[in-house]
Amino acid sequence: MSQENMRASDADREQIVTKLRTAMDDGRINLHEFDERVQQVYAARTYGELTPVLADLPAVRRSRSGPKPAAAPGMFPTWVKIMWTPWVFVNILCVLIWLATGMGYFWPFWVAVPWGLALFIPSTVGYLVNKENPRD
User: Fold this and answer.
1) Residue 24 near residue 30 (C-beta atoms within 8 A)
2) Where along the chain do its domains lie?
3) Model confidence at 135, in pLDDT bands (50, 70, 90)?
4) What 3 state SS string does the chain have?
5) Do the Cβ atoms of 83 and 122 come closer than 8 Å?
6) Cα–Cα distance for residue pair 117/81, rounded to 1 Å
7) Staple 49 to which of 18, 44, 113, 136, CB 3.0 to 4.6 Å?
């Protein structure tokens, strides 16, 4: 029995999807192509059906230097920036409004603190989880 006629496992399919995700991240395929190919991967039963999905993509290069270095100190993951950026800008706006209206009672506190606490909890959990199980 040839390799092409052998049944593919779920782990084999996941490896192909990971390679497709890398190709999309590199800009080799767009989101629509990625979606189409992932559908083909999950519909495939044999290695022969999986092979054409990656045929026009270069092989994934392995880093010779080992694992990727950690982000430089002071650099934040994208998910942290996405979560905290609106908080920063809204609170700057609130403080500017407070300054422009006579600096009475510091009401921006009621915007900054509850929202900040609501963001701090998932940020802490995400940091701890990513610290224990780093991706790539």
Assistant:
1) yes
2) 3-54, 78-132
3) low
4) CCHHHCECCHHHHHHHHHHHHHHHHCCCCCHHHHHHHHHHHHHCCEHHHHHHHHCCCCCCCCCCCCCCCCCCCCCCCHHHHHHHHHHHHHHHHHHHHHHHCCCCCCCCHHHHHHHHHHHHHHHHHHHHHHHHCCCC
5) yes
6) 16
7) 44
Q: Which residues of 86-119 are buried (b: 16+ CB within 10 A; e: fewer)?
A: ebeeebeebeeebeeeeeeeeebeebbeeeeeee
86-123 pLDDT, tens digit each? 999 999 999 999 999 998 999 999 999 999 999 999 88
Q: How far is CA 106 from CA 94, 95, 103, 116, in A?
A: 10, 8, 7, 16
